[in-house]
């Protein structure tokens, strides 16, 4: 049996937000889906996402249309949610329903999609860069251009030209033509579809595209187009853009973010890049200075510790807990101790911010720091390890660190 296709009301009128229809069938899986004889709801296709809205039954139940899809057989499926149990007899085949699409969402989609046609034609006319795909997301849209290079100046020129076409308020007509007729019209892109009749969106003296999407009636209704991120993709260059109210809300969000950043620097928004660069340079230079100071401090402290530690059994055993020292510094100190002296063993710890232990010995000393540390970690409930000459580990809290260091020192004959 050949099922009759859904009559697509949006094909002829993108501004039809209300319509009456007849129920054909209710599908159960995966979600409840309604099939009507005719519909103004746009199903996801050709890069454009679906409309939402409501369908009201004769029993006055309002079904929320959450997604609209194209079935393989040419019918439009309206997936819906009911707020409560609804009268299912009002969805028997042949009963009447009233559909209402969300006009704000439809308007937004018309602005994005028509904006895309204008922009794609601008890239083609200016730089001979064809659009190979179009993607519409909830917050931005993108086109992929078939080009090896795309410069900042080209982006700005295409944006300027697209906005001029919008300002000229050119008529946007819907035309229908056979494939043969269409071949002679000079379409920007002939679709691969095997359909005999093509729907053509005609932006007066600017762009002719075979397209099933919903479009504005005059380019002025697109309002504006703003190009955003560009990135190299496998097939060429991806250009993100926003049109209409989205362009305004995106610019508003950008401005808010930039203003907050500028306030942090007490600067004008246009000076933010320069201020940020300066701040990063300062951070880099301070980090370098700090590293150098830490090195010098560790070397001085190591020298002092070695001077005050007497030799026992032919080696200097340095046992110290340093409060308020980061692990990185403790490691640095252990390094200096075992390099400044050829017979040092260092058992070091820090209690804050993260209680940690560092064991180290000068090269050639006979112990195994990695094994000693592992043993100590088992006692303290921490984790760590290392090599024969240098090992480190963290423990959950500072209790027991002093006692543990003392025990290891005794074992080493200190
Ligand atoms: Zn299109």
Explain what you see.
By secondary structure, the chain is of the alpha+beta class. The model has no long low-confidence stretch (mean pLDDT 93). The protein has a 6-stranded antiparallel β-barrel. A 5-stranded mixed beta sheet has the order 16-17-18-20-19, sandwiched between helices. Strands 9-10-15-14 form a 4-stranded antiparallel beta sheet. It is elongated, with a radius of gyration of 36 Å. The protein has helices at 103-127, 152-167, 179-185, 245-265, 272-308, 327-340, 369-380, 401-411; strands at 7-8, 18-27, 33-36, 38-39, 53-57, 62-70, 76-82, 96-101, 131-136, 141-145, 172-178, 197-203, 207-210, 225-233, 236-243, 316-322, 344-350, 356-361, 383-386, 390-394. It is built from 8 helices and 20 strands. β16, α6 (327-340) and β17 form a beta-alpha-beta unit. Helix content is 35%, strand content 29%. It binds zinc ion. Zinc ion is lined by residues 46, 113, 117, 209, 211, 213.
Sequence of strands across the biggest β-sheet: 2-3-7-6-5-8
Biggest beta sheet summary: 6 strands, antiparallel, barrel
On the 0-100 scale, what is the average pLDDT?
93
**What are the low-pLDDT stretches, counting only 5+ consecutive residues below 50?**
none
Query: Tally the helices: what do you get?
Result: 8
Bound molecules: zinc ion
Oligomerization status of the protein chains: single chain
Instruction: Please state the CA-atom Rg, rounded to the nearest Å.
Output: 36 Å
Fraction in helix? 25-40%
Tell me the layout of helices and strands:
Elements: E1 7-8, E2 18-27, E3 33-36, E4 38-39, E5 53-57, E6 62-70, E7 76-82, E8 96-101, H1 103-127, E9 131-136, E10 141-145, H2 152-167, E11 172-178, H3 179-185, E12 197-203, E13 207-210, E14 225-233, E15 236-243, H4 245-265, H5 272-308, E16 316-322, H6 327-340, E17 344-350, E18 356-361, H7 369-380, E19 383-386, E20 390-394, H8 401-411
Parallel strand pairs: 1-4, 16-17
Antiparallel strand pairs: 2-3, 2-8, 3-7, 5-6, 5-8, 6-7, 9-10, 10-15, 11-12, 12-13, 14-15, 17-18, 18-20, 19-20
Helix pairs in contact: 1-2, 5-6
The site of zinc ion (ZN) has 6 residues, from helix 1.
